[in-house]
Amino acid sequence: MKGILPNLLGNKFLARAIKLSSVSIVSNFLGFLIPIYIAYRYSISKETDDFFLSYSIILFVGNMFAGSVRTVIIPFLKERISDSFLYSKFISTVFIYFTKLLLILCVALFVTSLALFVWTDKQLYWFLFLSVPIVYFSVINSFFYGVLNSIDQFYVAEFSPFSRAIIIFVTIYFLGSQFGISAVIIGYNLGELGKFFHLLYIIRIKNKLTISRKNYDFKEISVFLKQGFFQIASVTIAASSPLVDRVVAAFLAVGAVSLIDYGDKVFSVFTVLLGSFLTLLLSKWSGDVVSGNFRLKKLHKTMLIVFTLSIAVFVFILIFKFQIISVIYSRVPKSKQEIIAYILLVNMAGFILNSLNQVINNAVIALKFTRNMVITSTVKFVINIIVDILFAKIWGVIGIAYASVLVHGVGLVINYLLLKSKMHSASSLKGQAA
Question: How many Å apart are CA 81 and CA 96, to the nearest integer?
């Protein structure tokens, strides 16, 4: 351990990670304040429960494609980056394909949510109807992120959340009194639209990358879609866990969904920091795989560093959890603040395990073993449903947070064993071929 940290601290990779994390924190700072502003303005109610549940559904649908496009595309772009024609053809094909797919999906969501609202007159479905455009633009924006990350423009890409957050705040401030919490949804829609134009400007004008229908060739992305399908399936199953948590919480007392969401949002700053590191890591490991330099030892070293830093953050939250929550959610009743604080602490324990799991996922994606992720996510999903219901009956809303920790732990073990087995099998096949 003593030898690892100095080596890492002296590494150019760490310097880039620190720089990107700093840019991300600055860019996402206003985004961190959005849920705090929501709590300040709307507190905890049935309306906030409906909003957070509807937004969880929208995030679930969007993340089915957004996370996959942003990450899986990087190894494929790295393979083509030396040939500008093939690179341009690939991004054009992916953009056109997903644009068509998303339009069909969004029309279906519009019709379904509107029909459910007319039929049931429930506010939840109205919120869903208003939120559908978020799905379209969040996926397209994730594709843009993937393109920029593939050409190592990490810092440029990370500035777009700042403009998005400004739009959201301005919208809530001016429309909040007139439209209530619906103004938050309108703000999220306009924020994603603003991010779309920002990223499109960077890609088309700043980097002169062309996206043209003339370069469309479905055969060009057939392998990518196969790999992407496995991650989409994995992300779909994995992203369902937060949704399951909130659905279970909806059957508890009024405000339970809001409590979970407020507790989740506080540690988003650490998630952003981890995400910045993982973005660089995936790009580096994708290059290592192409050059044949990736080894399991690199994974172990990275996991050890992430584990050490995550433990340090957990200890900080353990000591200052009540002070943090009382400052951030000052308008929330004290009794609710205590519950949010405990949810935050338990979530941080899960964050340690999930961080290690995300490091493994980067290796899986770089090696194109994404089928492993489907297996891991499926097991986690089944366990999550069972323990969510069981733990919620025993400990209430905090029990749902306990369940997440258990699920992350099981997923970590399975994911690592599958990767190790797959790498061993691949090495054996190479040895036989030689």
Answer: 20
